[in-house]
UniProtKB/TrEMBL annotation:
This is N-acetylneuraminate epimerase. SUPFAM superfamilies: Kelch motif. Keywords: Isomerase, Kelch repeat, Repeat, Signal. It comes from the Bacteria.
Amino acid sequence: MRLLLLLLAAPAAWHQLPAVPDREGVAGSFAGVSGGALLVAGGANFPGRKPWEGGTKAWTDAAYILDTPDGSWKPAGTLLRPLGYGVSATHRGAVVCAGGSDHTRHHADAFTLEWKAGKLRTTALPPLPRPVANGCGALVGDTLYVVGGQEAPDALASKAVFALDLSAAEPRWVVGPELPSPRILATAAVCDGSLYVVGGCELVRDGQRVSRRYLRDGYRLDPRAGWKRIADLPQPSAAPPSPAPSDTAGFFLLGGDDGSQVQTAPERHPGFPRGILRYDAAADRWTAAGEQPAPRVTTPCVRWADRWVIPSGEMRPGVRSPQVWAFR
């Protein structure tokens, strides 16, 4: 009976959609649904040599649209600048984007992307109170939350929380209750009207050296009482597809970087864990829920009609994949 319940709870029917039209693929893109189509924009990759060969990361401003799951990607225009590693969510037919970075700095920009009549329209929103990249976030009702991240490339992790009510006549960012501890590359999830943030990495400075401490703790935001700790993850997890796919009873954590290969040379890295974890909100419990065929990190997860989509992403350090995976 337990096995049957796990099978029923696990994401099933994995399948590939057409690959994004970037040979290398991208990590840290913005993604969502507009005009009924899947929109992917921005992100970064290593278009020439890999990082262990002295290659340089390059950010892109390119945007692409996929009208139907069995269609073909089409160029959709460009962002206002090359940008990636921000937060994105679908809201009322537009993709809301906040924060991000380029090759020199982190940004506080917020804007919407809307695909309409064959054109990409960009509309500015109020900027974040501070620059944020490598954070996480999700939409709870009409409110977009941006959590954690870094203010600058050389900054330590933040525990700041910013919220933007997109239904307001004049939306403005509100500073929310801080996370109990700072982190980058955490996973956001929404279940039964509540925001959850789990895992990620704390940045620890030792002289000139900054290292990552991989985290297992997670929290639920109570609007009246602030953050409440939930059950710890069985193992650390950083940068899995976010926001995590969810339903009214819980959400799924799709792998992530557990930190076990930190000492492995990048060119010999075996890839990220395949395991899927299911969080049961009522029981406050994590359980194993199967495996994914192609684990990816630093990429969004998008609900598109009857499926969840993971567009591109990082398959191992410094290596992206143009593949697009989906499951029902």
